[in-house]
Protein: Putative membrane protein
Amino acid sequence: MLLVLCVDLDDDLGRKTGFSTPVVGREPVEEAAIALATADPEDSDVNVIFQGLHVYDDLDERDESVEVAVVTGNEESDVAANREVGDEVDTVLASLSTAEDVTALVITDGAQDESVIPIIRSRVPIDGVRRVVVRQAQNLESMYYTFKQVLNDPETRGTVLIPLGILLLIYPLALIGSAMEWPGFVLGTTSALLGLYLISRGLGLGERIDSAAAQARRSLYAGRTTLLAYVVAAALFVLGGVSGLNELEAIQESAAGDVGVPVMLAALVYGSIQWLAAAGVTTSLGQITDEYIAGSLEWRYLNAPVYVVSIALVLHGVSGFLLDRADVGYLATALTAGTLLGITSTLAFAVAESRFSDRDADSDGDSEEGPRAADRIRS
Structure:
């Protein structure tokens, strides 16, 4: 037999309803539950007793041998309450008229009542313990699960908690800045961080940065030369920028008056074009190398470094002419050489791609025709 044992450690049932305990049997327990619910609807022990009745009815419908009872303690110390519960459990067990072995399912409303479990176990084997938790109000429960979902979702957590954390840091950082006599710097830095974060989230820069980092990591592990080419190109871009600024400063120092915008642009281009061209050639060669290793290289890809050199040659001639560093003859030579170099490259690689692709197609056709001819001969 299974004994469904409802535990009321502080004897709310006896104090608030006058019921004498223990209460044994389906009908007496239901009357006790209704009486306690009428006396104090907010008492959690009401739910314990009704849960015991629910378990009893469920097992009884399955034709299982089951009994339900309510045992209580008292308002005194935990030791006295536990002893009272133990005595009532003995009374309940003595009242059961059955030849079957009795086991118990203990139902409580919290950890405090569960402290009596060792006392009950010393008298009857326990099959399980069920704690009854009352559902909260709908708004409170909804708010709880909303906060829980926010904290568990990495994307939402980063979107909500990071700006909130930065805002909460403004006041203590302002105090630190005031103590160090740098309040403006601290507040400016904090607001700048918050602004940069919001802008990056709004533009989706975080996803792009993560994607670029993942691509760089895959390229590094795959041994792709493109990654190294990009690093070298970045360094060349920096050197080109510095060289362009130096050229601009030299032009401004040598000029008697103000320098116009076309001359400023020409100075920047003239000083940096050779570095930028080297960066372009480096990245294109790295990409060509990776395509060749992957077996997907096409002839027209080889136009990229040639185009970079052609464009650099044209820009160098134009910028040098605007800065009086080159005469008309050099400008004409640069324009003609850049144009011819680009056209020649395009035609050469187009012809090469056409011829080699036709040759590959013919070789594939011959390789397929050979087995067919052999089959005809055998037949």
About this structure: The chain has three domains: 2-131, 138-203, 223-364. The radius of gyration is 43 Å.
